[in-house]
Amino acid sequence: MDPVKNPYAPGAGQRPPELAGRDRQLAAFDIVLERVARSRPERSVMLTGLRGVGKTVLLNQLRSAARTRGWGTGKLEARPDQELRRPLASALHMAVRSLAAEHRNPEQVDDFLGILKAFALRSTADKGMRDRWNPGIDVPAVTGRADSGDIEIDLVELLMEAAALVRDQGVGISVFIDEMQDLGAADISAICGACHELSQDAAPLIVVGAGLPHLPAVLTASKSYSERLFSYHRIDRLDRESADQALIAPAERENVEYSTEALDALYKKADGYPYFVQAYGKAAWDAAARSPISAEDVAVASPAAEEELAVGFFGSRYERATPAEREYMRAMADLSGDDGPVATSAVANELGRKPASLSPARDGLIKKGLIYSAERGTIGFTVPHFGRYLRGVQ
């Protein structure tokens, strides 16, 4: 098979050639956009799931849907070592710039940008750093709104001002936040508070977040009403029909087919996880001499796909862990059968240690995004099949 025509795309956040199995989430978001544009109250949206299930891909697709409707959109990726102000200011600046040319009142746009600049400049208590950093907004800062220094007060004021900018325009603004579980506690609290105000006011601005499975718990720990504040969508592995579609549809566009046995073998290997579907599909295409791609081609290709996953998907994460953290994860793998979740007390028993003595390793792994707290007293791997990989590591 011609490798140049290989349609599959195993990459972090890279859109697959066929976005299969996500029609329900896309349709639900279309309804949200339409309701918000009509000044109907609607909740912001949260996507949760393990790594490799396509959260970032879906987040980008939702953003594309909003832009198609003429909405202003901006996106940021949360990082544990970065406060929210600067990246959020950049995302909102991006969203407003895309709407500025169509806005009927340029002075109102400039006034908002001045407020946005003042918000951004409160991003650090170091005056020298503030003086050296420029948020790239070409209007003077407007003081007195969204610049108190209290992120929760400022974010509410800022997003309400942004919503007012488009309230009579028949469109809205959407802010997309990836890796949302990595935001600090104060920033999470501020987002919850702002979304609460926006929802009560039926304001034309929504936040769309994506994060690991424990994101709902992070939000609820910040504000008890968060469980009712957002519309949660759990993004999981693909069912058999959708996984087959993700393989068949791109191949058909290149006049290539799969045997039924090949599809059986590929689903067993990938287990429905979108990233794995793309990785095994790409390897099977490259290994096949002709159409239809057969089960034998899949068998030949599998070691190459598994080697690529071992290095780029699993190994890069494993290398970030300390020896104590690796020991903790191996115990998890031995107990979980594959991915977990498992009880923290069981891990302590497996290692013959007191649970308190393992807290530094557990907390370090959570901060590195390698494990998550599934519910009180339990933990699981953030990466599917990581337990299986660990049991093969010598």
From TrEMBL:
Pfam families: AAA_16
Region (Disordered): 1-20
Keyword Electron transport: no
Domain Cytochrome c: 167-333
Keyword field: Heme, Iron, Metal-binding
UniProt KW Zinc-finger keyword: no
Lineage top rank: taxon: Bacteria
InterPro entries: AAA_16, Cyt_c-like_dom, P-loop_NTPase, WH-like_DNA-bd_sf
Family annotation (Gene3D superfamilies): P-loop containing nucleotide triphosphate hydrolases (3.40.50.300), Winged helix-like DNA-binding domain superfamily/Winged helix DNA-binding domain (1.10.10.10)
PANTHER family: ATPASE DOMAIN-CONTAINING PROTEIN (PTHR34301:SF8), DNA-BINDING PROTEIN-RELATED (PTHR34301)
Protein name from the UniProt record: AAA family ATPase
